[in-house]
Write a structure and sequence with these properties.
The complex is a heterodimer of chains A (471) and B (249).
Chain A lengths: L1 H12 L1 H41 L2 E5 L12 E2 L2 H8 L4 E15 L4 E9 L1 H4 L5 H4 L3 E2 L2 H9 L4 H9 L4 E2 L2 H8 L3 H14 L14 E4 H7 L6 E7 L5 E12 L4 H4 L2 E5 H7 L5 E2 L1 E6 L7 H12 L4 E5 H4 L1 H49 L4 H36 L2 E2 L2 H9 L5 E2 L6 H27 L2 H6 L1
Parallel strand pairs in A: 4-10, 7-9
Antiparallel strand pairs in A: 1-12, 1-13, 2-11, 3-4, 3-8, 3-12, 5-6, 7-10, 8-9, 14-15
Helix pairs in contact in A: 1-16, 2-15, 2-16, 2-18, 15-18, 16-18
Chain B lengths: L1 H34 L3 E11 L4 E11 L3 E8 L7 E5 L2 E6 L4 E4 L16 H5 L8 E11 L2 E10 L9 E7 L5 E7 L5 E13 L2 E11 L6 E11 L10 H6 L2
Antiparallel strand pairs in B: 1-2, 1-13, 2-3, 3-4, 4-5, 5-6, 7-8, 8-9, 9-10, 10-11, 11-12, 12-13
The chains are: A alpha+beta (471), B alpha+beta (249).
Chain lengths: 471, 249
């Protein structure tokens, strides 16, 4: 106990020295956490975009579907199966789907598209088309109307930058325009009014389609237009249909936004000639953590008890995303390792300075009969105390930033945004909110503090009093 | 001494020439029999067999020589009314559901016609077994109670064909093609066609069932069954138009 008291007093004896050393530890923790938070937040965002609100964390498929994604590898769908699955405790939503390809055309423009047959009601729990529906699109007409209504040129310039952009909520329009204060309040109503876009989502047995934003622009298909779909259906049947466009949806993942078409399930079944069949049941569990997935998968498999069906989690049916995240994570960890390296020498440098400063003090203490071990223990306590508080302060200092970055994700604009989009990423870098990673960062830094204690301890045990006294 | 040897050689050459002539003659006769000389109208059922499922498509077809042909799908109901027009080396597809005429692009040539094992290319590029190949009898065999010549066809150097070798089994009495095997340039079997169910139709004895078996896809085959055929039916060139594709019944 006395050791601890002495250590505590030693720390306060030279406040400035303590402050410098603990500041170096504190910033280390802060930076390590912020960096890791960006990395993990981005992965989480990707998983949320692509898995949680598009494909589901778990899918029930025909046993051969994964290896050969053809419509023949579909399965018979009964409403009983669906309700059986929905009754499982840990399951949040079950969404039936048919997924296949078709050539979409408006006559002059043609493009390959992913056609997804959805149950519009259940789909609201997964990708939520209502939420994705484009409600505002800034067109030449919008700008013309704004010019006519004597709006300031500065605002028109900002609106022009967003020409041909689509938005699915008022908030996203405000965010993209970056207007503030009175300007915003005064003009946003006009801007919204002039860019209004009137789509609706599908009814349960709709024969129309929802087209993703970028695809609709490529096809030059507007609401009410008819698009031609041609494909090969179930068992080689030819599939062709004329479908009116009911609405445009904006998918956050640019890659999907280029090629997605939503169709009502009955329409998709008749289009592909596969009445009563599905290619997948997309399931989101209530707890989608890594630990819980195997358990939920086992529960689903036992509820199905059908040897023709297999249950796959997202890492199995979307290995591309998994690898993308893994490889990025590895390079992220390498950079983090580099950061640790720099941090370590930062801490070590201040410790070195401290020992040098205090070597006369140590010499005196040993000369007047203090045990070297006692001195070493006191020094260790000092470092640990300082390390503990500095790490704690570092963690708390990072929290406001984490919170802000989590709620208001950092958004790229301009060319950088285009580069990100063209690579298939949404140009957003959100931060991860509090999770175990924070304590790991704290732990690693604390470990480095202990590691940098080795030098002063060795110094104490090998020190020659005579030399030390002269220092 | 030299004279008899020389004459023997001449005789041998003559003999070889004769047998070659013979093989060509056989292929020519069989080819004429299969094609129906000038024009024809037929109704067929095409059964597509896959390891886990089967599907039957019925169609009516009109043809004139090798350059003109028209096909109208009559069943299943969902595909009824679709028609295909082939003029020389081009092909169009009319789909009444979307009211669109589609010209088959070159990229679609290697795809299966109506989901079958027949590729669009098979239908378009009918090279001539008579003109484009050299013929040689390499044996005989009995297939389905018919004594057949086995004839090997090797493509001529400048012939526009994709095959490395063909082997035909042609019956000795009726000149019917009972089995054809197609080999690629490396000598691997690509597909075989088997003619079965020999019957008399419109005054000719012909195999009325054709099976197409791709060699590299076990369990897959396409069975073409002739329901009716009229040889030398009156079909004129102006029947084969895009306008007519939409009117066919």
């Amino acid at each position: 106990m006395n050791y601890l008291k002495l250590a505590w007093r030693n720390l306060w004896r030279n406040k400035r020295r303590t402050l410098i050393t603990s500041a170096s530890i504190m910033f280390s923790v802060f930076f390590a956490i912020v960096m890791r938070s960006f990395q993990l937040g981005t992965y989480n965002h990707m998983i949320k975009n692509i898995i949680e609100s598009y494909s589901g964390f778990v899918q029930v498929q025909h046993i051969n579907y994964h290896d050969d994604m053809v419509l023949e590898n579909s399965f018979d769908f009964s409403i009983e199966t669906l309700s059986d699955l929905e009754n499982i405790e840990g399951i949040k939503s079950v969404t039936p789907r048919i997924e296949s390809f078709a050539l979409a055309s408006t006559g002059s423009q043609t493009k390959g598209a992913v056609v997804i047959g959805i149950d519009p009601e259940r789909e609201s729990q997964l990708s939520d088309p209502q939420h994705l529906l484009v409600k505002y699109r800034i067109t030449d007409k919008t700008i013309e109307l704004l010019v006519n209504s004597k709006i300031s040129t500065e605002i028109i310039k900002k609106v022009k930058e967003q020409l041909n952009e689509s938005f699915s909520s008022r908030e996203s329009v405000e965010l993209a325009l970056g207007l503030k204060g009175p300007d915003l309040d005064k003009w946003i109503v006009n801007i919204l009014e002039f860019s209004k876009f009137s789509g609706k989502i599908l009814s349960p047995d709709d024969d129309g389609v929802l087209v993703s934003d970028r695809l609709s622009k490529y096809l030059k298909a507007n609401i009410g237009d008819t698009i031609i779909l041609i494909s090969q259906g179930y068992q080689g049947a030819s599939a062709a249909a004329l479908c009116p466009v009911r609405g445009i949806i904006k998918i956050p993942a640019p890659d999907l936004d280029n090629k997605l078409i939503y169709m009502s399930l009955p329409k998709a079944q008749s289009f592909y000639g596969m009445e009563g069949k599905l290619t997948s049941l997309n399931i989101n569990p209530k707890d989608n953590s890594e630990r819980n997935l195997p358990k939920i998968k086992a529960e689903i498999a036992s509820a199905l008890s059908n040897p023709e069906l297999s249950v796959k989690d997202w890492k199995e049916f979307n290995p591309v995303l998994k690898q993308q995240i893994e490889s990025d994570n590895q390079s992220g960890q390498a950079i983090l390792g580099l950061l640790y390296f720099i941090i370590f020498f930062g801490i070590f440098g201040t410790v070195l300075m401290m020992v040098h400063e205090r070597s006369r003090e140590f010499g005196v203490l040993i000369s007047i009969g203090m045990q070297r071990t006692s001195l070493a223990i006191i020094l260790l306590y000092e470092m640990l105390l300082m390390g503990f508080f500095a790490v704690l302060i570092g963690i708390f200092a990072s929290l406001p930033l984490l919170y802000y970055g989590n709620v208001h994700p950092f958004r790229f604009t301009g060319d950088l945004a285009k580069i990100y989009s063209s690579m298939g990423f949404e140009p957003v870098m959100p931060m991860m909110w509090i999770d175990t990673y924070i304590f790991w960062q704290g732990f690693v830094v604390a470990l480095m503090v202990i590691l940098s204690c080795l030098y002063p301890l060795r110094k104490i045990f090998t020190m020659k009093e005579v030399n030390a006294l002269r220092a | 001494m030299t004279r008899p040897i020389l004459s023997l050689c001449v005789l041998g050459l003559l003999f070889f020439k004769l047998s070659a002539q013979n093989a060509t003659e056989i292929v020519k006769k069989a080819d004429e029999k299969a094609r129906g000389e000038n024009s024809g109208i037929s109704e067929m059922n095409m059964k597509i067999v896959r390891p886990t499922w089967e599907r039957t498509v019925s169609f009516k077809s009109w043809s004139k020589g090798t350059d003109y042909s028209m096909v109208l799908i009559t069943a299943p109901a969902k595909e009824n009314g679709q028609s295909f027009l082939k003029i020389e080396r081009e092909m169009w597809n009319w789909n009444p559901v979307i009211s669109r005429m589609i010209k088959l692009p070159p990229s679609m040539l290697s795809q299966g016609w109506m989901g079958s094992d027949f590729t669009n290319d098979d239908l378009l590029n009918q090279s001539s077994a008579v003109i484009d190949y050299t013929h040689k009898i390499i044996g005989s065999e009995i297939i389905e109670n018919h004594n057949c010549y086995i004839i090997e066809l090797l493509p001529k150097e400048d012939a526009p064909v994709v095959w490395g070798k063909l082997i035909f089994w042609i019956s000795k009495d009726d000149f019917l093609q009972l089995k054809n095997e197609y080999y690629d340039e490396d000598g691997y079997l690509v597909k075989s066609e088997i003619g079965k169910n020999i019957k008399s139709m419109d005054g000719r004895t012909i195999p009325t069932v054709y099976e197409l078996i791709p060699a590299d896809k076990p369990g897959n085959k396409t069975i073409l069954e002739m329901v009716s055929i009229k040889f030398n039916a009156p079909v004129t060139n102006d029947f084969f138009t895009q306008q007519n594709m939409k009117r066919l019944k």
